[in-house]
Design brief:
There is one protein chain. It is built from eleven helices and eight strands. By secondary structure, it is an alpha/beta fold. It has one domain. Strand 1 and strand 2 form a beta hairpin.
Length: 287
């Protein structure tokens, strides 16, 4: 098995070992975290002729810390333990993994790759719903989320408290939404309807998007929701201690830099307001 994953945080290793590593009695089944990725990917890859391709895509995205899959899948998919019914399967894209030339003057966000991985995350969660969903006929309510936004800012030299943060966050949210819808449109054509997609169409009607995507949303009878941003502390910790959701990276933006709690809350509120128009569900942050 090719090893792709690099742990850089001891707490992340400990979390994986305690919560997500598969043990069967006295037998250690997941010898590496890459075995965990392969296990989950194999459980979701389906049985069609292209199943191997998608399994490899999922495992590669996990190993690059680009997608963190639903904790329920990490714990149980591909093991002897049944996965509980997934009424709203979730995954998180790690924004910090999409910064090109980080830390330098040319550091920038790779919006194209980010959108492509958002589309992949929709397929992953559609597969999860097909394999472990609670209802085989209801439209799918997926939760493609986000971690590591503050880390991405830091890698690009963008101050979380500054004026550049909200518009950049909005661009990230727009890229997430557009990529997710592109992935959903392909799946709707491939896999057919699952009820009424009107809620998703209504959301997209108010967004400034290419006409072809607005038509895709209007014609989607498979997905009722694609994106939702909320705290996902276990996935953030597993991703080498990434910042959680859209929260500030408090270890790096704190009192030592003159940041007050009020200033952080004000900045977070501005970032949330900038992103919300492109997110399907009300955006949740920590109190």
């Amino acid at each position: 098995m090719t090893r792709l994953t690099r742990f850089t945080d001891a707490h992340a290793v400990d979390l994986w070992d305690r919560r997500f590593r598969w043990r069967s009695g006295e037998r250690l089944r997941d010898r590496t975290v890459d075995a965990t990725w392969q296990r989950v990917a194999a459980a979701l890859g389906g049985g069609g002729g292209d199943a191997g391709y998608w399994r490899s895509r999922y495992a590669a995205a996990f190993g690059a810390w680009q997608i963190l899959p639903d904790p329920r899948l990490l714990r149980r998919a591909g093991t002897e333990r049944a996965v509980p019914p997934l009424r709203a399967p979730r995954a998180a894209l790690n924004a910090g993994a999409f910064v090109l030339e980080p830390g330098g003057a040319r550091a920038r966000f790779d919006f194209e790759r980010f959108a492509a991985v958002a589309a992949l995350a929709v397929r992953l969660l559609d597969d999860a719903a097909e394999a472990f969903g609670a209802d085989a006929t209801a439209p799918l309510r997926l939760e493609v989320g986000l971690i590591g936004l503050a880390d991405a800012f830091a890698l690009m030299g963008v101050d979380y408290l500054g004026e550049r943060a909200p518009p950049l966050a909005q661009s990230v949210a727009r890229s997430l939404a557009l990529g997710a819808l592109q992935g959903a449109a392909r799946l709707a054509r491939e896999r057919g309807e699952r009820g009424d997609g009107a809620p998703l169409a209504r959301l997209w009607a108010s967004r400034e998007a290419p006409a072809v995507l607005l038509d895709a949303a209007a014609n989607n009878r498979r997905h009722a929701r694609l994106t939702r941003l909320r705290p996902q502390p276990s996935l953030a910790r597993l991703a080498n201690g990434a910042s959680d959701g859209i929260e500030p990276a408090c270890a790096r933006v704190g009192a030592g830099e003159g940041a007050t709690t009020h200033a952080l809350r004000t900045a977070r509120a501005a970032i949330a307001a900038a992103m919300q128009p492109w997110i399907d569900a009300p955006l949740r942050t920590r109190p």
